[in-house]
Amino acid sequence: MDLVAQGIAHALALIVSLDREVLRVTLLTLEVSATATLVAVVLGIAAGAALALGRFAGRGILVALVNTSMGLPPVVVGLFVALMLWRSGPLGALRIIYTPAAMIVAQAILAFPIVAGITLAAIQQLPPGLRPQVLALGATPLQSVWVLVKEARLPLLAAVMAGFGGAVSEVGASLMVGGNIKGHTRVLTTAIVMETGRGNYDVAIALGIVLFVLAFSITLILTHVQQRGGGPGIYGQ
Amino acid sequence: MGRSLSLALAACLALLASCKPGSKEVILATTTSTQDTGLLDVLVPMFEKQSGYALKTISVGSGQAMAMGRRGEADVLLVHSPDDEEAFMKEGFGSRRLAVMHNDFVIVCPPAASLRGAASAVEAFKAIAAKQILFVSRSDDSGTHVREKKIWKQASIEPAGDWYVETGLGMGRTLSVASEKEGCTLSDRGTFLALGKGLDLEIAVKGDPTLLNAYHVIEVDGGKFPDVNHRGARAFADFLVSAGTQQAIGSFGVDRFGEPLFVPDAPGK
């Protein structure tokens, strides 16, 4: 219990004093995970909508693949991305191993199936007659998809939150492709692993609290956007 | 749909390109002890300030660090596994190897194991095996693990059984496991002292000359791998053996632990 109390006290001290290293690590965490989520959202919503509306050979297998990948193990993704990005790997010429860009790639790969899977379910949940109706009103096919995406905005924002949560909380991939380099690729989760290894449990707990507050704040903002004017409630208007 | 996909792809590529680093970047692969003790937190900013290079430190075991060197994934290594280092040099993967510093390994045990004062490392290992005291092994091909295997061999013991557990973790976390499970382990002195406050372990054997723990810096041979930044590697190796750095190594930890964690090995250069 002592350790937990010390950790909380230490966390408050770090936050109140705006410790520069903690601030830098927190900002990088936000930058990397938010960018990864953005990439995953753009690609994931497009892929989810295509899977929900398209009818083509192999669709069933792709849907199963997306749903399975919603729980991809971060270390496996990290290993795969590292093998690709190492100097000797097929994409080694990009020279992005051990940079924030590599971490963005890995986290985006983790978040993409989460966003795509939820988008798929959300769009299939819409009334089946909606799209033909919109098309009959003169919308182009692309416009009709946009209408459907807007209709499904509540679950889609949930997809964004789930994607961000997956990205910001993982450690295996970030450690492997980022390397936990001080001032460069050290994010909250990898710093927690390192401080635990050093036996600095109070600092590790403090960073854990910072991570929770960060994830909570982002989710709070997204929830606000989601609920703003959103759903009519179960009794209609 | 196709357009939004290609737009997103273009955005990704632009993002990747913007992060492309220059050639002022040096990748150092090193043993966990240099990071877990905090030594690199002192040396890296010094080096970056003096040389203008950006040093990227990847903290793994010595075995993995040399594996990175063998593939040209790292430019320079700071490791402590002498037999493997000599093999590495003999195979032609390194262009230069210099002694940087040393300390010693210590065998640490819970106070209840009452192994304090064992005559030598080999005697202590024999006693641990005979009494079946829990022993926690790194089992990660790190310099410490290689040394541990060597001592078992010298004691003519093949460690196996319920009393021998393998973590596959770094030194800091293996020490935590040993402390929590009330077992013995082999540690470098630096990491043990750095973590000492939270551990319920005491030094059972120290000062045995076979427990010497020497750290060397190795420049990965740029002739084999065109991508290796051998100038940066040379700059870092030169920095480590320079008088100012050696002095910083020799005084590191005195303020926190009352004794230095490492002894510099390249004085006067």
Explain how this protein is built.
The complex is a heterodimer of chains A (237) and B (269). With 237 residues, chain A is an all-alpha fold. In chain A, 74% of the residues lie in helices and 0% in strands. In chain A, α2 (20-53) crosses α8 (153-169) and α4 (74-85) runs parallel beside α9 (172-178). The radius of gyration of chain A is 21 Å and the shape is globular. Chain B has two domains: 23-102 and 214-264, Periplasmic binding protein-like II (D-Maltodextrin-Binding Protein, domain 2, 3-Layer(aba) Sandwich), CATH 3.40.190.10; 104-211, Periplasmic binding protein-like II (D-Maltodextrin-Binding Protein, domain 2). In chain B, α7 links the parallel β5 and β6 (164-166). The longest helix of chain B has 17 residues, at 2-18. At the A-B interface, α2, α5 and α10 of A face α1, α2, β2 and α8 of B.
Mean pLDDT, all residues of chain B: 88
Number of domains of chain B: 2
What quaternary form is this? heterodimer
Please tell me the CATH architecture of the largest domain in chain B by its name. 3-Layer(aba) Sandwich
Distance between the termini of chain B: 65 Å
Quickly name the level 1 CATH class of chain A.
Answer: Mainly Alpha
Shape of chain A: globular
Radius of gyration of chain A: 21 Å
Topology:
The complex is a heterodimer of chains A (237) and B (269).
Chain A: H1 2-16, H2 20-53, H3 59-69, H4 74-85, H5 100-124, H6 130-136, H7 141-151, H8 153-169, H9 172-178, H10 188-197, H11 201-227
Chain B: H1 2-18, E1 25-30, H2 32-36, H3 39-51, E2 54-59, H4 62-70, E3 76-79, H5 82-90, E4 94-109, H6 121-131, E5 135-137, H7 143-154, E6 164-166, H8 171-181, E7 185-188, H9 189-195, E8 202-205, E9 212-220, H10 230-240, H11 243-251, H12 254-257, E10 263-264
Parallel strand pairs in B: 1-2, 1-3, 5-6
Antiparallel strand pairs in B: 3-9, 4-7, 4-8, 4-9, 4-10
